[in-house]
Amino acid sequence: MRKKIEILSPAKNLIQGMAAINAGADAVYIGAPQFGARTNATNSVEDIAEMVRYAHLFKAQVFVVINTILYDDELNQCKKLIHELYDIGVDALIVQDMAIMEMDLPPIVIHASTQANNRDPKHVKFLADAGMKRAVLARELNLDQVREIHEATDIELEFFVSGALCVSFSGNCYMSIAGGERSANRGSCAQNCRLPYQLIDGTGKTLIANSHLLSIKDLDLSDQLPNLIEAGVCSFKIEGRLKDIVYVKNNTSFLRKKLDSFLEVNADKYQKASSGRTFYNFEPEMDRSFNRGYTDYFVNKRKEKIGNWESPKSQGQLIGKVLEVKANGYVIENYEKLNNGDGLYFINANGEADGAQINIIINNIVIPNTFKPLPVGTVIYRNSDAEFNKMVEKENSAVRKIGVKLYFTETVDGFQLKAIDEDGHHNTVSVQAEKVLANSAESVIPNIKKNLAKTGNTPFIVDDIEVEFSGNWFLPISKVNEIRREVLEQLVDIRVKEYHRETFQIQKTDHPYPVQKLDYTYNVSNKLARAFYKRHGVTEIEKAFELQWDPGKARVMTTKYCVKYELGKCARFQRETMGEKLVEPLTLKHGENEYKLKFNCKPCEMEIWEKDAELEFEDEDEQLGWFSK
């Protein structure tokens, strides 16, 4: 059997979810009224039900995000919501909190959110054995690690391939709550990682002032799809439940085209995960919608700098350099790509991220609304593409159609039209009509075919038409249109009704959890989660950070991102060129908030601690075994 490969797109709301399906998504993930990790992207159960019906028409799936940690007083409400979601036809839930595995659930498929520490084979295999059907892998994994997980278990693997990156291990970032009592694990991340910081060394010297030192570029693994498929990934996820519709349609369309090209030449092993095909009235380009510049993160291991310290805002598409500065504008390389109303992004003479909006372009001079002096050679990006946005926002910029064959024949007392779609669903409609020969000897069949092919705003496109008459019967075009409209409208209902939803009833197991002691990074915040872990052999369970935070002393983040590496001071990878070592401890400071950095060089990780934490620092050369004490 050929393996299904999926594009999974974000749905902030019903409109954007439908747009993602139209653009070629095989599945969408959407937030419910509660318990999603984006509190600004919630949706009513009624809207989700409509999303389900529309997606299922194309055999696309709908996954609902229930991935916050739960408190005891929320457990019953969460269970009730899950039953409602099952009743409206939702295909799967994406969860973090293991309390859900203890609930009396309907037979709904469960996916493990990336918030659930899906970073190693033992942990992912445990989740599979517990009944989860899919794991959303940690973003920081490389291809070898993905492959190892795939070899350890047959659970479906989902991987982020585009969009914003969490600098922290997902589910293990506590900067937001430590800095202002907004929990990322409760859907209220304050994005402290996107703030400007000072970097101060152990002597008190400010090494870098006012830079976004934890802000990293966005992810683009579009060129890695074949490698990820080979490693075992079956679902390619686009981040962005808070992004606009242009971003969703553009990124979905771009990845759809990329994946279709792969599937076309590997049709013997892989297939598309949903039905229909999309017709585009624009050329998708990921750098023309929101992005902070792109990185492949660690999928090919650590090999480049991934930070974007100038600004956490959109950088956009590279245009070219400033060639000349005029009295009221600039001569820019590739200026012909620009349009009136575009937003420009650049780094100004002070080394700060800055921007301007184009008022008008006269000859080759780009005139902004507000002129800002720029040095010749300044690199210009376009972070708001007015013409592109207008084009993509149109409803017909991406139109999805399901292939159908029509068979028009006569009956004893009239005519009938049979429609068979690309998935084998069929419908037949008959009409009574007196059979009268046409006045002209010219065949009526070409004209009938022409009108049967007019599917208009239906979700169908006619791939083939057969008309078989025993005579050259005259039939009013209005009758042809009526029978075509009726057969296709009914076929829509048939497709939705005959949609097959996979179900799975969770059965409680007692196989051992990979570790016996859980610290706060396992985010255990309720009695059901504690019961789950205890049944699986865990002996010590620390409360979630949100329930026991000791201000000023906690580790608030662990990350594969490394400030030393970004500075060219990594003893492991940049030893020959790093020069003098930095004097530790290094401190990040933003306003009254201060954090200490600790570098664990063997696993190649950086920890961020609150300022009053008592830490022991081991020399990087000792960690790497270059010399001993």
UniProtKB/TrEMBL annotation:
Locate the coiled-coil region(s) and give their ranges: none
Q: So which domain of life are we looking at?
A: Bacteria
Q: Which PROSITE patterns match?
A: PEPTIDASE_U32
Outline the extent of the Peptidase U32 collagenase domain: 380-495
A Pfam family cross-referenced in the UniProt record is: Peptidase_U32
Quote the protein name from its UniProt record.
Peptidase U32
- Origin species, per record, is Emticicia aquatilis
Lineage, top ranks: Bacteria, Pseudomonadati, Bacteroidota, Cytophagia, Cytophagales
